[in-house]
Automatic annotation (TrEMBL), chains A, B, C, D:
<keyword id="KW-0631">Potassium channel</keyword>
<keyword id="KW-0633">Potassium transport</keyword>
<feature type="transmembrane region" description="Helical">
    <location>
        <begin position="21"/>
        <end position="42"/>
    </location>
</feature>
<protein>
    <recommendedName>
        <fullName>Ion transport domain-containing protein</fullName>
    </recommendedName>
</protein>
<dbReference type="GO" id="GO:0008076">
    <property type="term" value="C:voltage-gated potassium channel complex"/>
</dbReference>
<keyword id="KW-0472">Membrane</keyword>
<keyword id="KW-0630">Potassium</keyword>
<dbReference type="GO" id="GO:0001508">
    <property type="term" value="P:action potential"/>
</dbReference>
<feature type="domain" description="Ion transport">
    <location>
        <begin position="25"/>
        <end position="245"/>
    </location>
</feature>
<feature type="transmembrane region" description="Helical">
    <location>
        <begin position="157"/>
        <end position="177"/>
    </location>
</feature>
<dbReference type="InterPro" id="IPR028325">
    <property type="entry name" value="VG_K_chnl"/>
</dbReference>
<feature type="transmembrane region" description="Helical">
    <location>
        <begin position="54"/>
        <end position="76"/>
    </location>
</feature>
<keyword id="KW-0813">Transport</keyword>
<feature type="transmembrane region" description="Helical">
    <location>
        <begin position="97"/>
        <end position="120"/>
    </location>
</feature>
<dbReference type="Pfam" id="PF00520">
    <property type="entry name" value="Ion_trans"/>
</dbReference>
<dbReference type="GO" id="GO:0005249">
    <property type="term" value="F:voltage-gated potassium channel activity"/>
</dbReference>
<keyword id="KW-0812">Transmembrane</keyword>
């Protein structure tokens, strides 16, 4: 067995089939998470100026790592079964979903080194999280969740419409009751909608809250209505998620039986 | 096939039966939502004074559009099957639920142009949302939800009574513990009920909160009680909604089978 | 049929059996709710001083009404089937659960007129809500809920113990991290428990919140733990309530069949 | 029956088998809870300095009590059935899970008397709560809960990953929208994550909240996303807990049948 064949089996063979993580997968997973953590703490100014060169070297290292991973995969994919030539297989792979994600990750990691002008570009690095989709298990679970949500799309339309009516009704009620007293917070319906969203989701920052007795009575009904607003989509999403995980386990488990070795 | 017959089929034929949206439905839906958005942002003073004439023209346009829709339906409904005369059919349609909603929408859109005195009349325009009920699918889902809630009305009575006792008990406890210290917020039971509602729904603005150790201990128990207050109606509403959506799908699906073309 | 027999049937006969409300029940229910509302708004000082005599007369009226109801029941209960003498039946009724509640309501309504010294006694009037238990339906639903909760008592013990450990752990973590910085709010574990309860129930007033980075990291974990704290008892209570309402409907429905007239 | 045999039966025999609490168990349970309460209120400076000697004596008493319990168990365990010598049985017991917990509790209670330097050591006393695990019922319920959670570990991985993406996305959005306006609260992604956690868990302290219109629009979407964040793990944990309690009852009930005496 040649080195290329061994590499191919390590990088491609098992992880896609049964969703288990190979050693290479684990190394890549750690690299992805570490690179995201570095990108996050790199936004903290005090830390970033102190450790400027360390962060630059780390980012450069991650860029090289992801580039090397991409090139190795491109090199090894020629081992894929089939009568086509090496480069035909390679071009076929390059157009696949997982290869495009890999390429995307390489690009968002390296672009900020080339275009250093806008610091906002550095936020692109967070899209490295897309690389999580490479892991068969996570990708399959998301696909199952997506199809479960689509199956319940009417439920979500109706819930969404009811929630919009509740949000809008609450905002209108408090615009009417508090608009004169607190023009900054309730002086128009769009302003009052900020209060409405924060109350109906039960977050309740308290930066805006009604001051008049009438406003408080209306706000109390809106807050109680929020229980229903949360109850209906919660039920739908929980049921959709539960169905999705069942579908996902049904996909995982037969693979486990066929290939019981971890 | 005459123009009137074509118009009739486009406006009336399919949308009521299987709940699917025809092209006309989609246009009307966009017009409803756009007109509501204009009415909402028109309440923001800075924006409204700057774009006074644009908003006026848009509102006038929506008024004409809804009026034209109503008149076209009135004209085309004469095509309805039956031996009666054209105007007999038209009067019959005018008394139907959907026609009354259409008329209501035309009125709430145009009345603020006639009676310009009170700016509060402009809020009437938000009732244009009632036009969503014209869409068979949404109307059916609401009917299903309504009947599912009615079936569980005893559950809601009992939950409501328990919640009222909890609200009142919490308010009384904090009126007793904090009434002397914070007379503005807890100086009477009705005042303390504002705190009680905002705590039991877990919104928690923080505009009023207990200051004394005794008040904090009592408030902690009220907050923990809030978990139960939310749990019971959440379970009922989620179950009612789930039943309603099942009943709604059962109604939708056979129609889909009979008339599988979108 | 004598007046006493008619009164007996109106007051006693049907309401206990199938849980439906007779006309008398409805009158009594309105009187109870009205008397509670008067007691509540009577605590608002501005309103109470302005309407002093109106409130006094209303309270006196409610007292007389509840007393008259009690006496009428005492008089009419002699019609109850059985060979015993009138007063034997009356004494038997006086010792029954519902008669004791009625007596309790009369006492808490009239005591504040006799002992006018302590204004706290007026809060006793809120216990008039106990009269709701007289309505067969509500009393049965509560009994069903109670037995469903008792059946799941181990679940509640375990949840309660886990919640206590989480509350205590959170309070200890923030006492350790923030105790020096905010001695007023986190200077001891009992003080930190106020923050812990308000965070874990997701109320979040914001009167106390961590200021140090370490405190924020710990508080973030406590807040996420709150999702689990709410999830477990919510599931138990919702399931217990759902079982209770099923048991309650099973009790109600046969009665409805036997006696289908409202 | 010797005193040692009686002691053995009281301390060891029944409580482990069916999870019921013997008289000794109840005494130990009260001692554990009382000792934790003393440790908690001992952190309140005003109370601690006033009752210094009382707290010291109480702590010393609890230490002696737990030590005595440990020694008594060590002495009585020699009664355990088996041909080995007394000390062989004792050493076997000392290496068991429950004996190690007992020893741990004795140590965390007595260590602060020996090493009086660091007041932080006194927090160790809270670990006395670990002694709750000695009670068969609680220990079994936790084991059942643990295995139910392990069975659903993929669901929790996926939920956790989605929640992390949502947390990170929300923090990045508000860092981008509000970072310039409120550098203290949103000036870096790690800072914005504090806001993100407190919003998505719907705690909503309100110590940090967006000020710009764009920030408010983004925050509204994050708050609505929080409904889903809570819905998914809530469903998983509630289902896991429900399964766990079923498994736990299945374990408890047969024991009750075998040994119906309390």
């Amino acid at each position: 067995m040649t080195l290329r064949a061994k590499t191919y089996h390590q990088l491609f063979a098992s992880s896609r089939r049964d969703g288990r993580l190979t050693l290479t997968d684990r190394v890549v997973l750690v690299a992805i998470l570490a690179s995201v953590v570095v990108a996050i703490i790199g936004t903290e100014r005090a830390f970033a100026t102190e450790n400027r060169s360390a962060i630059l070297w780390a980012e450069f290292g991650f860029g090289l790592f992801f580039l090397a991973e991409y090139c190795t995969r491109l090199w090894a994919v020629a081992e894929r079964a089939g009568p086509e030539g090496d480069w035909t297989k390679r071009f076929a792979w390059m157009r696949s979903f997982f290869a495009l994600i890999d390429l995307f990750v390489v690009i968002v990691t390296l672009v900020p080194f080339v275009l250093t002008g806008a610091p906002i570009l550095r936020l692109l690095r967070l899209f490295r999280l897309a690389a999580l989709l490479k892991f068969g298990r996570f990708s399959m679970a998301l696909k199952a969740l997506g199809s479960a949500v689509i199956e319940r799309r009417y439920d979500l339309y109706v819930t969404g419409a009811l929630a919009m009516v509740l949000l809008l009704g609450g905002a209108t009620a408090l615009y009417w009751a508090e608009g004169k007293v607190q023009p900054e917070a309730f002086g128009s319906i769009p302003r009052a909608m900020w209060w409405s969203v924060i109350t109906l989701t039960t977050v309740g920052y308290g930066d805006v809250s009604p001051l008049t007795p009438l406003g408080k009575v209306l706000a109390a009904f809106v807050a109680i209505g929020g229980i229903g607003l949360v109850a209906m989509p919660t039920g739908i999403i929980a049921a959709a998620f539960s169905d999705a995980m069942q579908a996902y386990r049904d996909k995982i488990d037969p693979a486990d039986e066929e290939n019981p070795m971890p």
